[in-house]
Design goal:
With about 450 residues, this protein is α/β, with parallel strands linked by helices. Helix 6 packs parallel to helix 7. The longest helix is centred in the first third of the chain and has 22 residues. About 50% of the residues are buried.
Length: about 450
């Protein structure tokens, strides 16, 4: 290991697979090594750097890439598999010259998933990603390849959503909720980053330890476009990199048995609208999927704003699909456990799988990847003259575009060049949206460095 001092401590090192990637073919290694336009190297470099940079205090992908501009990775083929040759890697990924084991596992999970996505999903005629069933089948195979499906399966996986730009009080509260979930033997799945994605896992590890649970699962689901802003935290012991945001969201609701939503910003609003839009489809009317929004007492205004926005845009039926519990971690866990009993009874009655929710109906509006551009954002239909689940899908895209503008380096570059996104729709909905987004900005919920936040959008 050598120190490469270029303003930040950086390390040169060689590492071998740990936990999730045993062997690659010579063809796959050549794909990894390729730096051509069709190669995987630029994507891999960005994602691997994000894993190595876990614990960073910035959510600006360009800042990370600039900070470690000299970072590079080589792929060496050996009889026993592949070895990575890292140059200019963040020094905080190492302890006494050795890479932290959790980071090492996640490093090779990134390789496993990106290679699998390219070879077995995107370039395989078995998966018709233009259809609902084909997309769901691809999501299942990606999850199975990442070994997220455990047997015998049990109804005990709680997905926790929330922001990475949250206050210390809110972060501590997520740990308390995670602790209560862990005491009840429940496992945790998050977006795998910092803040509300890390706190529940940290709390659950203590709850599991007290109950002598040695096989606790801390699942992280992310995607390449935002991984640099939400670097996986090393508590994650099962990581999967989904091809895009829509497949990431589908993975959450297919494998999760219940959802806890902590305070957040536009990313959390996107997740809420995605789930509500899916549940509002008539085919999902009777399907139990407990959803609880929770935070400390100081966060109550945030949830009331979300609740009012949902009620004014999607109506009372959408509001009936969740509960709001403030400042009571134990009650959150008790209510979730009660909700999971209903999920278990429903799946047992219908003969459904415990490990993957095949029965949940997800329409193409929620599956088709949405790329945020000035044209696509301006073209969104945000009017009330459409079914509520369709309106929810388009509102979800609004928030997805803002997330992209906030954290993706390529989107940010386009906004710098052409100005902010223009968001247009009915006057009533635009007023509601403008009020909600303004509240997020005022509360510092847009980015970690939000004091100087410049909106990437303009409400027309």
């Amino acid at each position: 290991m050598n120190i490469d001092n270029a303003g930040y401590d950086a390390v040169n090192a060689e590492v071998w697979p740990e936990g999730s990637l045993e062997v690659l073919s010579h063809t796959e290694v050549e794909q990894l090594r390729s730096s051509t336009e069709k190669g995987l190297y630029p994507l891999l470099r960005r994602c691997l750097l994000a894993v190595l940079n876990s614990g960073s205090d910035t959510d600006d992908a360009r800042t990370v890439l600039q900070r470690y501009a000299n970072f590079s990775v080589g792929f060496l083929q050996e009889d026993r598999g592949i070895r990575l040759k890292l140059k200019g890697a963040p020094a905080h990924a190492f302890v006494d010259g050795k890479m932290i084991r959790g980071i090492r596992e996640l490093l090779f999970a990134v390789l496993r998933d990106i290679v699998f996505t390219r070879n077995e999903i995107l370039d395989d005629a078995r998966f018709d990603l233009s259809t609902t069933d084909g997309t769901t089948n691809a999501v299942f195979h990606q999850i199975r390849n990442a070994r997220l499906l455990s047997h015998p399966a049990e109804i005990k996986l709680v997905v926790c959503w929330g922001g990475h730009a949250i206050s210390r009080e809110e972060y501590d509260y997520t740990k308390l909720v995670g602790y209560e979930l862990g005491l009840r033997g429940l496992n945790v799945c998050t977006g795998c980053g910092p803040g509300a994605m890390k706190g529940p896992m940290k709390g659950a590890t203590i709850g599991h330890a007290k109950q002598r649970i040695r096989d606790g699962r801390y699942i992280g689901i992310t995607e390449p476009g935002i991984i640099a802003a939400e670097s996986p935290n090393p508590i994650v012991n099962s990581l999967v990199i989904m091809p895009d945001m829509e497949k990431r969201l589908e993975a959450f609701v297919r494998i999760g048995h219940g959802i806890v939503v902590f305070p957040g910003g536009v990313g959390t609003a996107e997740e809420i609208l995605y789930l509500l839009g899916v549940l509002l489809h008539p085919d999902n009317h009777d399907m139990p999927l407990p959803m609880i929004m929770t935070g400390p007492g100081t966060s109550e205004p945030y949830f009331r704003q979300i609740d009012e926005f949902v009620g004014a845009t999607l109506g009372p039926e959408a509001q009936s699909r969740y509960k709001i519990i403030v400042d009571d971690p134990a009650e959150v866990a008790r209510q979730m456990l009660e909700g999971l009993e209903a999920v278990h009874a429903f799946r047992l009655r219908h003969g459904d799988a415990y490990y993957f929710n095949w029965r949940l109906r997800i329409e193409r509006d929620f599956q088709e990847p949405f790329t945020a551009t000035h044209e696509s954002m301006a073209a969104l239909n945000i009017n009330e003259d459409q079914p509520t689940h369709k309106l929810a899908a388009n509102l979800r895209r609004v928030f997805s575009g803002i997330v992209s503008g906030n954290v993706r380096e390529d989107t940010a570059a386009e906004i710098e060049k052409h100005g902010p996104f223009i968001i247009d729709g009915s006057g009533r909905t635009m007023n509601l949206l403008d009020d909600l987004l303004a509240a997020f900005v005022a509360q510092g919920r847009m980015k970690i460095a939000s004091a100087d936040y410049v909106p990437c959008y303009r409400i027309k």
